[in-house]
C-alpha cells in the first residue's frame, strides 16, 4: 500500500478528490494544507506536479476504514443533519437527515462554502420555489432543497463524470439534472438559484443567472474568499444583498433583483 501526499488549497481539494477517485484511490484523508490518498501501487504522479506530489510506502492496514473514520455526522444550520452514506445515525429531533457522499465530487458538505450555502438555502427557500443548483457537484444542495420542501428541483453540471455521480446520488430525489449550464433555461423561470462555485466562474455566469431569475427571485452565491467579495458584488450590482454570511474567510451572498425606482410623479396628471 502507498499513500500520495498533495499540497493544495481548500478551493482545489474538491476537484483533486474527484480526480483521485477516478484513478482508483482506496481512500482519502484531508490534511492541513493538502490531501493524502491511498493506492495499492504507486504510479507516475507528474500530472499532479503543481501540488508537489510525494509517495510514501505504508504498512498494510484498512485505509478505507481509516479515511471513513474522519467523516462524522454533523449539524448544519438550524434544520439539517449531515450523515455520510455508509452510516445510519438518525437525525436529532427537529432536524432533517441529509445523506452525503463524502469525497466523491464537489460539495461533500464539510467545507465552509458548502455549509454557508446550506445555511442560506434553509433560510431563504420557499415551499413554492423552483430551485436551480448551478454546478451541482455531488448534488448535496439539490438534495437539501428537496428536503427543505422545494416545489421543483433542477440541477446542472458541466463536468460529465460529476454529473453521473450526482445522478447516482440523487436517484431517490425527483430532480431534473442535465450536463450543461443555465443557458438551457428560459428567461424569468427560476425562483431560487444557488451556485457554490469559485469567484471567476460566478462572474462568468452572471449574465445567465440574471437572465433566468424571476423578478421576485433570489440568488445564493458561495465559494469565494475575502479578496473576491468586492468584485463579485460589483458584477452583481443589479442585485440587492439581503444576507451576507461568512466563515473562515469564505463568503456567501443572498441577493434579489434590484427593483427600478419609481418616479413619485409618475402617473400624475399634468
Write a structural description.
By secondary structure, the protein is of the alpha/beta class. The chain has 2 domains: about 1-70, 2-Layer Sandwich (Alpha-Beta Plaits), CATH 3.30.70.1170; about 105-255, Vaccinia Virus protein VP39 (Rossmann fold, 3-Layer(aba) Sandwich). The chain contains 7 helices and 14 strands. The longest helix is centred in the C-terminal third of the chain and has 14 residues, at about 200-210. The radius of gyration is 20 Å and the shape is globular.
Which range best describes the helical content: under 10%, 10-25%, 25-40%, 40-55%, 55-70% or over 70%? 25-40%
> Which ranges are low-confidence, i.e. pLDDT below 50, for 5 or more consecutive residues?
264-270
CATH topology of the largest domain: Rossmann fold
What is the overall number of helices? 7
CATH class group of the largest domain: Alpha Beta
CATH architecture of the largest domain: 3-Layer(aba) Sandwich
User: Which sheet architecture does the biggest sheet show?
Assistant: 7 strands, mixed
Strand content: 25-35%
Give the spatial strand order of the biggest sheet. Answer: 10-9-8-11-12-14-13
Element-by-element helix/strand order: EHEEEHEEEHEHEHEEHEHEE
Give me the count of strands. Answer: 14
Count of folded domains: 2
Sum this structure up briefly.
This protein is α/β, with parallel strands linked by helices and 270 residues long.
How is the secondary structure organized here?
Elements: E1 2-7, H1 10-22, E2 27-31, E3 34-39, E4 54-57, H2 63-68, E5 74-76, E6 80-84, E7 96-100, H3 112-124, E8 130-134, H4 140-147, E9 152-157, H5 160-169, E10 175-179, E11 190-196, H6 199-212, E12 213-225, H7 229-235, E13 239-247, E14 250-257
Amino acid at each position: 500500500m502507498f499513500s500520495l501526499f498533495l499540497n493544495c488549497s481548500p478551493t482545489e481539494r474538491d476537484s483533486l478528490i474527484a480526480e483521485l477517485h477516478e484513478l482508483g484511490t482506496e481512500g482519502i484523508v484531508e490534511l492541513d494544507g493538502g490531501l493524502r490518498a491511498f493506492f495499492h501501487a504507486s504510479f507516475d504522479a507528474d500530472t499532479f506536479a503543481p501540488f508537489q506530489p510525494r509517495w510514501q510506502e505504508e504498512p498494510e492496514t484498512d485505509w478505507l476504514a481509516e479515511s471513513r473514520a474522519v467523516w462524522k455526522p454533523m449539524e448544519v444550520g438550524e434544520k439539517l443533519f449531515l450523515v455520510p452514506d455508509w452510516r445510519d445515525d438518525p437525525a436529532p429531533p427537529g432536524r432533517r437527515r441529509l445523506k452525503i457522499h463524502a469525497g466523491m465530487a464537489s460539495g461533500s458538505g464539510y467545507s465552509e462554502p458548502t455549509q454557508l450555502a446550506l445555511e442560506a438555502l434553509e433560510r431563504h427557500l420557499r415551499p413554492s420555489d423552483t430551485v436551480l443548483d448551478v454546478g451541482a457537484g455531488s448534488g448535496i444542495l439539490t438534495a437539501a432543497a428537496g428536503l427543505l420542501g422545494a416545489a421543483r428541483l433542477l440541477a446542472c453540471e458541466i463536468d460529465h463524470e460529476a454529473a453521473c455521480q450526482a445522478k447516482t446520488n440523487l436517484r431517490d430525489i425527483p430532480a431534473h439534472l442535465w450536463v450543461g449550464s443555465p443557458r438551457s433555461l428560459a428567461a424569468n423561470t427560476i425562483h431560487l438559484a444557488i451556485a457554490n462555485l469559485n469567484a471567476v466562474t460566478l462572474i462568468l455566469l452572471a449574465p445567465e443567472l440574471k437572465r433566468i431569475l424571476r423578478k421576485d427571485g433570489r440568488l445564493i452565491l458561495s465559494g469565494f474568499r475575502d479578496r473576491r467579495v468586492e468584485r463579485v458584488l460589483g458584477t452583481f450590482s443589479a442585485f440587492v444583498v439581503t444576507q451576507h454570511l461568512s466563515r473562515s474567510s469564505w463568503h456567501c451572498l443572498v441577493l434579489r433583483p434590484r427593483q427600478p425606482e419609481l418616479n413619485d410623479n409618475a402617473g400624475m396628471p399634468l
